[in-house]
Design brief:
This protein is of the alpha+beta class and 242 residues long. The protein has two domains: 2-124, Putative xylanase fold (Orthogonal Bundle), CATH 1.10.3670.10; 134-241, putative xylanase like fold (Roll). The protein is 38% helix and 22% strand. The chain is built from eleven helices and ten strands. It has helices at residues 2-11, 13-19, 22-31, 37-47, 60-63, 75-87, 91-101, 124-130, 161-166, 183-189, 225-231; strands spanning 109-110, 113-114, 135-136, 145-148, 155-158, 176-180, 192-201, 204-213, 217-224, 236-241. The strands form three sheets. The protein has a six-stranded antiparallel β-sheet. α1 packs across α2 and α4 (37-47) packs across α6.
Length: 242
């Protein structure tokens, strides 16, 4: 049974996730065990490629008070789940990781439901500053620009597109990319406007991200990172790495 699950993963990576049981997930996590954490995170992110975008403004997983809601994802849920599965060694282990990492403090479940989602991370900038979502390495990737912040941040340091492209070879699989909003969007959307995950394949660097619009839809896509940066509607990026 485990061998069949692994073969199915290899042949149909974007379809396998939706049909896997907990034991199937555990079987593949076992094969990933010796790989660096960043590669494991990127692997799980790729399994969501093609998954429909969650159009619920609140997030279906939050509205339903559940940890696992893999049928539809937004950019924050994709990041949550990819990291949790990358760190966890079983499906249950990943759930326990989620109760730590998705929350400012720690989540609580009763009767299979999350009872304190109000304590979850709701802004990407809070995820970065918490240290729970990797170590911020933005300064290590190039000279940063500054922009005035919101929500108590006087200034935000980030990499603009040109500098991203100049240092693109320094990115690694599993790097979490936090895209910085333009000033006019910060007041309503926060400092971070989007999140994605890097997957490096030989000389190509891809961005895996939930591409969509709330109340409308979309899907998870895997695109060349360079192409996305050249046309992105954001001021720049911050980066964290496990």
């Amino acid at each position: 049974m485990e061998k069949i699950a692994v073969i199915f993963f290899l042949l149909f990576p974007s379809l396998a996730f939706a049909v896997l049981s907990d034991s199937d997930i555990a079987a593949y996590q076992q094969t990933l065990g010796e790989k660096p954490l960043g590669e494991r995170i990127a692997f799980w992110a790729e399994q969501f490629v093609g998954t429909p975008y969650d159009p619920d403004p609140l997030g279906e997983y939050v509205r339903e008070n559940v940890i696992i809601a893999d049928e539809r994802v937004d950019c924050m849920y994709l990041t949550f789940r990819s990291v949790e599965l990358g760190i966890g060694r079983t499906a249950t282990d990943a759930l326990l990781v989620a109760l730590d990492k998705r929350f400012v403090h720690r989540g609580t479940m009763k009767g299979g439901k999350v009872v304190d989602y109000e304590d979850r991370f709701q802004y990407g900038e809070d995820m970065i500053e918490s240290g729970k979502w990797g170590r911020e390495i933005t300064a290590e990737l190039g000279e940063r620009d500054m922009i005035e912040g919101v929500r108590g941040r006087r200034a935000v340091a980030f990499l603009i597109g040109r500098r991203i492209l100049e240092r693109i070879d320094l990115f690694r699989s599993g790097d979490i990319i936090f895209f910085i909003n333009a000033p006019q969007k910060m007041e309503t959307g926060g400092i971070v406007g989007h999140i994605g995950i890097i997957k490096k394949e030989e000389d190509k660097i891809y961005l895996i991200h939930a591409s969509g619009v709330k109340n409308k839809g979309g899907k998870v896509k895997k695109v060349l990172f360079r192409n996305y940066v050249e046309t992105m509607p954001f001021k720049g990026i911050k980066v964290s790495r496990f």
